[in-house]
Structure formats: C-alpha cells, structure tokens
Amino acid sequence: MDTFFFVFSKIVQFCIEPLNWVIIFVVLSLLFLGLRKPHLCRRFLILALADLLLVGWLPSSEVFLRALEDVVPKTNIAQISKEKLGGIIILGGAIEGGDIAVDRGEISIYESAERVTKAFELIRQHPELPFIFSGFSGRLSPKGMSEADAFKQLIAEQGLPDRLAHYENQSRNTYENVIYMKPMILELGSVAASAVDPAVPAVPAVPAVSGGTAKTDNPQNTQKPWLLITSASHMHRSLKIFQKQGIEVIPVPVDYQTGAALRWGRFDLEDGMQNWNRLMHELVGLLAYWLTRKT
C-alpha cells in the first residue's frame, strides 16, 4: 500500500505541475492543426503561452510559497541548552546519490544544499549529540548509492565526528522518514536517559526499518526533543507527521526561497518552475497525507 501511495503521489505531482501543462497544450495544438481546426490550435497555443507567463512571473508562485515557508517560524537554537536536546535529525532531499555518485566517485549537493550545510554546522557545534540522517531516494527507480550512504561519505570527507552518527537508508518520502526513524529515536532517547539515571529502564530496541508504527509507550517520558533540519517549505508537513507519531522536535527550517517582499518586476522561468514544483509537491503531500490520516 505504501508503494502504491508513493507511485501515485509522483504521478499526481507530475500531472498538476504548471510547466508540464505547456507540453500538453502544445501537443493538443499540433493535434488540432493536423485535424485542420486552426481555431482550437490557436486556443491551446495561447494557453501554453499564458502558462509560461504564469510560471515565469515570480510573484505568482512566491506569494504562495512564502506563506508556506512562514507557517513554521525559525527557532533561536542558541537559547536552547544542549542538555535539553535529544539529538539532530536531517531529512534527505538535498543529495544526489544514485549511480552518478558511484560512477564519478563524488557526491553532488543540489538546490536544497542548506539541509546539508546546516547539518554540518550543528554537528560541529554539538559533537556530544547523536544525529540521524534519513533518506534512501525519492526516485521511482533508484539506482546506486542511497542518500544516507552519500551523506555518510560527506561526513567522512569533512572530518566530522561520527561516533554518534546513525543512518536510515530505506525511506522514500517524509512519512517513511519518520516511521523508520522512530524506533531509532526512541532507543537513543532511552539509552541517554539510562546513562543519566540508571533507574530509568531502556526501551527495547525495535528494528529501524520496520514498516509499521512503533509503540510509543514510555511512562518515564524520558524523550528529549530533537532538532529537525529540513527546507522551510517542507517543515510544516514534516512537523505534522512527527506530531502524529508522538515525537517532539524543534524545527530548524533552512533553504528559504522567498524574501520579505515579492519581486513584482522579475520574470525568470527557471526560478518560477522550481518554485511551482516545490509548492505543488508540498500541497499534494499535505492533501495526500491528510486523506490517508498520516498527519
């Protein structure tokens, strides 16, 4: 069922992204041109042009994307005592693993690179905290190296401490990120609590790649909140899933794509396309997770 949900979400996202409709409009216009219906051909060409103008004019996407990025405010981490933190969570989605990383021997970081750079920063600042990187691949047909393995290689290349490093390399979407990490978070939290107070029993280890929902029974309430690093536009959906699973996290939003003011005179087809893709990805995710009661 989860696999069907994953594939279906990718299909829906592709179908509703505005720039993809340009291809459909052009194909339909060519079809009606061949059928000698020039009036319909012109109409679909006008729709294709209007679609391009809508995507490229940045305020059309920024106004919605900015609202999504502002749902979860930034947290002043400096004011939080490290003794009150359970660890650091880094959600995948910024690293190009796959067969390219294997073939070239280099790890590429793309548009959401701040997820990785912020993780490096916090790992350096808090070497005493465990961290979990979660992510396999968001592709329909993944090949080669997982994102988690790629991040592990980056940690080694940066010379960062990895004594408390943990990796989850099975998840394909945000829901699976949380489900597969949950047993790891509970176990690490109980181990830390037992180290401080031997009277607190440790929670038995649960397989980290279990497909079901792990039990959250913890009468001692020993779990500390974890710092959660992900893109600002993705943070709202992520928080809802963590809350549904009973895991307390402190948001560390990064990768902002909008500023305080809209760029009314700016036309950029590439930036507009990326904004719309992010926006539609999150809207589809929020709707799908709400319908399936994952949030």
Might you state the CATH topology name of the largest domain? Rossmann fold
- Please compute the radius of gyration using only Cα atoms: 22 Å
Low-confidence segments:
200-221
Q: What is the percent of helical residues?
A: 40-55%
**Order of strands, widest sheet:** 5-4-1-6-7
DSSP strand count: 7
Major sheet characteristics: 5 strands, parallel
CATH homologous superfamily title of the largest domain: HUPs
Number of helices: 10
Detailed description of the structure:
With 295 residues, the protein is α/β, with parallel strands linked by helices. It has 2 domains: 2-69 and 267-291, no CATH class; 77-254, 3-Layer(aba) Sandwich (Rossmann fold). The chain has 10 helices and 7 strands. It has a 5-stranded parallel sheet, with helices on both faces. Strands 2-3 form a two-stranded antiparallel sheet. The model is unreliable at 200-221 (pLDDT under 50).
List the helices and strands and how they pair.
Elements (H helix, E strand, L loop, with lengths): L1 H15 L1 H17 L3 H19 L2 H11 L17 E5 L3 E2 L1 H7 L3 E2 L4 H12 L5 E4 L12 H12 L6 E4 L5 H23 L29 E6 H13 L4 E6 L14 H23 L4
Parallel strand pairs: 1-4, 1-6, 4-5, 6-7
Antiparallel strand pairs: 2-3
Helix pairs in contact: 1-10, 2-3, 3-10, 4-9, 4-10
